[in-house]
Amino acid sequence: MKWSAGVLLVCCLAAFEAEAGCTAAATASPASFGSISSSLVYSAAQNTSSTNSGLTCTPGGISLLGTAYFKAKITSAQTGMLGPTGDVIAYNISAGSNGTHPITRGTAFDFASNGLLGTQAPSSIPLYFTTVTNNVAAGVYTETLNVQWDWYYCTGLGIGNVCLGSDSGVAKISHLTVSVTVANDCTITAANISLGSAPVVSAFTPVSQTVSVACTKGSAYTVGFSDGLHPVSTGGRRQMISGSNYLAYDIFKSAGTTRWGSVGTARRASSTAEVNPGNGLGHIPSSGSQIFNYNAKIYTDQTTPPAGTYTDSVVLDVGF
């Protein structure tokens, strides 16, 4: 008697498969430059990024095949971040930090062919933004970008790099908001005041000087001089000191006799500047400064104090 047994032969093709998939969120992670002074917006490029520009994928899949792509086309109805007065802050967009791999608006950019994704489908794709310097008014500036995503890649490979599955998306839109808050700022130029020397108070002559102020474009502001370190409690006079002795003096608006102070109407409004009166012109060196004239003098109705070097310190401030 012969016994026989059947042998089942099974041959399987070895394959690697990793299920994955991508989605384009309607709202991407926003990119904010934060609050920046108008002088910095004018003088230096600012940087920020969006950690996720809309496309999110389940880790896995192979993105290095020649047929794989992850493309983003960025468009907008604006040309940059729009502010409350109509000023626009332009900026550059890039796929790499420090401005590498620049992206042109309206032109699809492939993150895969530019070597930015590694070997697998990305869990997220960042974008980087760098402002173009500009002289602008204060306020909140925003722009909403439309990021159109198109992608295709294999989710699994068989022997000979045969694609066993794929994931794709066509014309999927994510909206990404870019914003910055521009804060009022000023650059102040003011020289020290020297009233010279004289044997008696009646021999001192007034000194005329100027204060130069360059403030944020369109800003209305006031400028004030503090009362110094040793003001008279009554009468409002400023005083210089030498040892235990005092010498009364004051600072007056323009070429007149109205005291320039730090509170209320004692301050000077930007509209009263002798040069470029009105709201601030911004930080343009050649034409942005507003000039305020003043005169300083020793009061002649006081008793001449002992000889010495008399000093005081006053603070010049700008308020919005």
Automatic annotation (TrEMBL):
It comes from the Bacteria. Pfam families: SCPU. Keywords: Signal. Residues 1-20 form the signal peptide. InterPro entries: Spore_coat_component, Spore_coat_U/FanG. Residues 17-147, 175-315 form the Spore coat protein U/FanG domain. This is Spore coat protein U (SCPU) domain-containing protein.
